[in-house]
Specification:
Maltoporin, Chain A, 5-stranded mixed β-sheet, mainly beta, single chain
């Protein structure tokens, strides 16, 4: 720890004169309207496109908070079809570990030491995190060709952010507007591992008497995993209709999105297996096997409305309604005897003829498809009333409603003769396993409702001839969870769904069942089905100030409080631990320099984090439980710089230093004498949090060629809470080369080569962390090449 801190201060002294960046880029329609007003008209545009100053992946920010943004110019240089979360990986404070080179197999995100479930992800201001566990699914995001820009709030939210989970910051991306002229883009791509993708986009241009515009797009992607069996088969449909209302910026817009993924989970390795070598070509990965053991299908979609209305010269109203649909699961298989106790239910039958041979035989064991299915219907609206009280003073009042129905089931299904699922969603959509008492075989059966009512207010003012900008705000989320568990539950991961009558355990509210393949021999005690409600609320102030103390230079400071209500997984335990919401107090102090050739910013920050919730395995009880690890302190420094020393050349860089410290030991039940047991975590660092990260990119245009080389260094990461296992650091580089075809079509056509992991670094990406033992790791993608032809007409 001492050596790291000495290195930290030495590096800070060295780099403080050159690092780093910031752009006005917000979430909802209201936040965009507010920040567009705050952005100076006539900013120098280095890239040649209209908008805020930008040098490659660095955009000039003017808000009094730490934020970093990328635009479509940079996004377009990345691999075609890549998830937007990988494209923000070079931004300060951000670390995204992609499960493959193309972005269709998932990945994991951390920001300033906070994992993805503690980061709010939004598209045009609508929340995309799972309503139950707040997870982010990187492979279900919008096609990158349709994204205008993406912004990351480091450690804070916007005042109207529709979230009950964001303690670590926000990621928001904005969908492109339809073009005013008719156009068509056809974009095929080919790459290694059988990669094939086709993307098509149609812009209608202005149609009808009111200048209505629209676009419609479709894409199809297939490829094989670089390790293990299976691959990715992905289809996406999108469309947007945009209707301007006059010439003052008012509009109505409707956007629709549908994504369908069919893919298998990729195999993971231990640290020992990785260090032993040949982890990328182990024979047992590539043997032909039933892909049903790790299938991961999803159907997701949403419809988003956006609107802005000018009510008077000083009053504007924005309304953003949305609906989202999710049907997804990660499942495998389970082998059962035809006379397993759970197959009998409350009947006296011997069991179920699972293999269809007309005989029920206890010696016959049949492998069934066992899913964990989630089906969500979600309705939301975010609205704001914006009052320009004077030229330099603005007020906003916002309201958010977010209601989600979260259905979690596990209807068993059958496998076909080749060992593949008869239906990707098992017994829910296909043939279920029917039991003698008229029910079906399930592994879980839960219904949850999540409802967020949030009010927010904000004031923005400029003083001393616009030398000082002040922002004061607060949001107040009121969050309700209604939970219904229809099965017997051992812990949040282990249920026993049956109509059998259990045997009560004296002095408890538990029951036992005969040992079966569903409950094993470790424990067959379960809590009874139950329904209950939980309510959480908070008052979350924030404040920021920017001082433009010299031409092109400014200082900013911000303070914000964050809040994350417990997840459904934290509440469905057999033991009612009643966890408190996680809370954060975040402080930032930053410096920015912005000129026509340099955009730079640097920030020192600290976050006081209370009531951090983790899940641990209680060996004495034989169950997983939610534990409150108490307080955590995170602090560090990060920033970025963009420099264009000459025409057609740009250099960008970012760095991040993060220091985290867990303040308390982790409680873990009691021993046989009743004495509390603790896991030694006090003084340790958070898992998956590298102390150092560096990113950089060089882009140069010569003739018809655009060349780009970028790299990312990620330091060592602890993979368990007791800090006894460390994932090695790694450094990867990506190359992009574009040949512009100005004479083809209507301009904008090109051929582009992308090489991911140019120097074929072998490294460990996503980590399935552990409390005290060894972790499981996702291998980083090896060197992978692909080529894309974009024909624009």
């Amino acid at each position: 720890m001492t050596n790291r801190k000495q290195l930290f201060w030495a590096t800070t002294a060295l780099m403080s004169g050159v690092l780093m960046a910031g752009a006005a880029s917000a979430q909802s329609t209201a936040s965009q309207a507010v920040e567009e007003r705050a952005t100076q008209v006539g900013d120098v545009v280095v890239t040649g496109a209209r908008g805020p100053r930008a040098i490659e992946g660095v955009v000039a920010e003017n808000n009094p908070k730490s934020r970093a943004t990328i635009t479509d110019r940079y996004i377009g240089t990345q691999a075609a079809g890549q998830t937007i979360l990988n494209s923000i990986n070079l931004l300060p404070g951000v670390n995204f570990t992609n499960n493959d080179a193309f972005g269709g197999a998932g990945g994991d995100l951390t920001i300033r030491g906070f994992d993805a479930a503690r980061v709010s992800l939004t598209q045009d201001g609508i929340p995309l995190n799972d309503t139950g566990n707040y997870a982010i699914y990187s492979n279900q995001q919008l096609d990158p060709e349709l994204i205008q820009r993406a912004a990351v709030n480091l450690g804070t939210t916007d005042v109207d952010s529709p979230t009950a989970s964001a303690t670590g910051g926000t990621v928001n991306y904005i969908t492109r507007r339809p073009a005013k002229d008719f156009g068509f883009i056809l974009q095929p791509s080919l790459g290694e591992y059988g990669y094939k993708r086709i993307f098509a986009l149609l812009d209608t241009g202005e149609i009808g008497p009111w200048g209505t515009t629209a676009w419609f797009s479709a894409s199809k992607t297939t490829y094989d995993h670089f390790v293990g069996a299976g691959g990715v088969d992905k289809m996406q449909l999108n469309g947007r209709i945009y209707q301007p209302l006059g010439d003052n910026g008012d509009f109505i817009s409707v956007t629709a999105h549908y994504n369908e993924n069919r893919n298998e989970f990729m195999p993971r390795v231990t640290l020992a297996q990785f260090k032993a070598g040949n982890a990328y070509d182990r024979d047992d990965y590539n043997t032909v096997r039933s892909q049903a053991t790790a299938i991961n299908p999803s159907n997701t979609g949403n419809i988003r409305g956006q609107s802005r209305f000018t009510l008077s010269d000083s009053l504007r109203l924005t309304i953003d309604p949305s609906f989202q649909y999710t049907l997804a699961h990660g499942g495998g298989t389970q082998t059962m005897s035809e006379t397993d106790p759970q197959l009998r239910g409350n009947s006296t039958a011997a069991g179920v003829d699972l293999n269809g041979d007309g005989v029920i035989n206890g010696a016959t064991r049949v492998t069934l498809f066992r899913p964990n299915i989630t089906n969500t219907h979600r309705y939301a609206v975010t609205s704001s009333l914006i009052w320009d009280a004077a030229e330099d003073h603005q007020f906003r009042l916002a309201y958010t409603f977010d209601w989600g129905r979260h259905r979690q089931t596990g209807q068993f299904g059958y496998l076909d003769a080749n060992g593949f699922p008869e239906d990707p969603f098992a017994g829910r959509n296909g043939r279920p396993v029917k039991l003698p008492d008229g029910t079906i075989l399930q592994r879980r059966n839960r219904l949850s409702y999540a409802m967020l009512n949030q009010i927010a207010a904000e004031y923005r003012g400029s003083f001393f001839n616009d030398a000082v900008d002040v922002t004061l705000g607060a949001r107040a989320p009121f969050f309700d969870r209604e939970l219904n568990n229809y099965c017997y539950q051992r812990d949040t991961f282990n249920a026993y769904c049956t109509t059998q009558v259990g045997t009560p355990v004296a002095g408890t509210d538990l029951v036992t069942f005969p040992v079966s393949s569903m409950n094993g021999s470790a424990s067959n005690q379960y809590g009874k089905p139950r329904s209950f409600d939980k309510q959480y609320d908070a008052f979350l102030p924030n404040a920021g100030v920017t001082w433009k103390f010299a031409p092109n230079q400014s200082l900013y400071a911000s303070y914000a409080e964050g809040f994350s209500a417990p997840r459904t997984d934290d509440l469905y335990d057999v033991v009612d631990v009643n966890p408190e919401p996680e809370t954060t107090n975040s402080y930032d102090l930053g410096y920015r320099y912005q000129s026509g050739t340099i955009i730079a910013s640097i920030a020192a920050w600290k976050t006081d984090y209370a009531n951090r919730i983790v899940r641990t395995f209680d060996e004495a009880a034989g169950i997983f439980l939610t534990r409150n690890v108490g307080d955590v302190t995170l602090q560090g420094i990060d920033g970025q710089i963009g420099w264009s020393p000459m025409d057609k050349l740009s250099l960008t860089a970012s760095f991040t230093y993060t220091d985290s410290e867990v303040k308390n030991d982790l409680p873990n039940g009691k021993d046989t004498s009743g004495k509390p047991i603790f896991i030694p975590t006090a003084g340790n660092q958070l898992v998956e949090t590298p102390d150092w990260q560096f990113g950089g990119r060089v882009a140069y245009s010569i003739g018809k060629f655009d060349l780009g080389l970028q790299g990312k260094y990620v330091g060592e990461r602890f993979s368990n809470d007791i800090n006894t296992e460390v994932a090695p650091d790694y450094l990867t580089f990506d190359l992009d080369v574009r040949y512009n075809l100005a004479s083809v079509g209507a301009g904008g056509s090109y051929i582009q080569l992308n090489v991911i992991n140019l120097f074929n670094e072998e490294y460990l990406g996503d980590i399935t962390t552990s409390t005290t033992g060894s972790a499981q790791y996702q291998l980083g993608a090896p060197r992978t090449a692909m080529v894309t032809l974009r024909a624009s007409f």
